[in-house]
Amino acid sequence: MEKVHFTEEKATMLATLYGRAVDARLDRPILGDHAAAEAVDKIDYDWRRFGMNTDAALSVAARAAALDAWTREFLDANPAATVLHLGCGMDTRVYRMDPPPAVRWFDVDYPETVELRERLYPARDGYRMIGSSVTDLGWLGEVPADWPALVVAEGLTMYLDPAKGRALLRALVERFPSGEMAFDVFSRASIATQKINTPVRRSGATLRWGLSGPAELEGLGLTVVDAVSAIDLAGPETIDRFSAAARWSLKVLSRIAFVRNMSHLVRCRF
Ligand SMILES: C[S@@+](CC[C@H](N)C(=O)[O-])C[C@H]1O[C@@H](n2cnc3c(N)ncnc32)[C@H](O)[C@@H]1O
Q: What is the CA angle 148-154-159, rounded to 5?
């Protein structure tokens, strides 16, 4: 068993890993990430502390599945591509996507995260991990700049200092000839009300970067081509997996503009 001592934003990746593991163990999972369930079994941790019930786990899985679908579309259209998976945590996206070795895939997170990944996950051709803060931009020099790039980041931007987050996105746009970015963003109201976000609060993490809305990204050299409210992530084909109470509250909340704006999954081109 692996002992882990992550705190603050690094601990949040254990909450999402656990969410995907809970989903994988359901009879009808949304994502079915069995590698996540195996990783959870190898980590000695009090998983109950995140208060991750089945509905919350399904929401984590729905977000991951949506980003997987966009990643798949990008790789199908760009067989020679560079993928930067930023704030990867313990996410097994590279194994779920199983890209051909021609794709250069980089997972980036803090060095402690990369060390745990190296202990638990296998190496593969075309795949590298970089242990660095994503906002210390020196790591970008390790990534070849010649191919179109997909930048995928799940549950990352809201933890970044806003000025550093904007500088990161601008640096990525400048470095590659073209590409896409797929990530989630929070509203300023989500940052202001972060104490109601149980996994974040229990991790001791602080949310910092909120946007007025996805359109704000256009000022950073990005063109927003999709913006899906987190409230809408469970589509008609998966909504019946949620409890009746969750379905009811999603239905009610989806009518409130302020709530719809709290979190979006965005796909941008540059
Ligand atoms: C909510 S977790 C999400 C992890 C993973 N994407 C997932 O969905 O399971 C947030 C992740 O962002 C990482 N993170 C936060 N700030 C970071 C930074 N400045 N540089 C690198 N990683 C960062 C944390 O270490 C953590 O792994």
A: 115
